[in-house]
Write a structure and sequence with these properties.
By secondary structure, this protein is of the alpha+beta class. It has one domain. The chain is built from 2 helices and 6 strands.
């Protein structure tokens, strides 16, 4: 990790939908730098129009035309953010958390995963 060396942990917050049962956002992740509040904006795990399975998506700027809707993070920064999200996601999967709906978790680089209160992750 080059540009984002200061990431201390990630927070993943799941909505109340368990699994990919419909269109919409299923989870959001923040990459944090020291505290839960000092973070990069949320990256969402969602089903996009025309797809049947969810994927991680960078936040986009919203404009009047499709050409105005582009990722806030692109290039090397966007790639590093998605790589950091993928690493946190793999650590979370390895922890084997089964009941996720409506819960939030803090994920550390050492693989430790802890459940946290919703109010802290929002």
């Amino acid at each position: 990790m080059g540009i984002l060396k200061g990431i201390s942990h990630a927070i993943i917050q799941f909505n109340t939908v368990a699994g990919a049962k419909g269109s919409g956002i299923h989870a959001a992740m923040k990459l944090c730098f020291g505290s839960d509040d000092n973070s990069i904006s949320q990256i969402v795990y969602l089903i996009t129009q025309g797809n049947s399975s969810p994927s991680w998506s960078l936040p986009t700027r919203q404009g009047n035309t499709p050409a105005d809707q582009y990722p806030i993070f692109n290039g090397v920064v966007g790639e590093e953010i998605l790589a950091a999200v993928a690493r946190a996601s793999e650590r979370f999967k390895a922890a084997g958390k089964v009941n996720k709906a409506g819960k939030s978790f803090r994920i550390y680089a050492n693989g430790k995963v802890e459940e946290i209160e919703q109010a802290k992750a929002a």
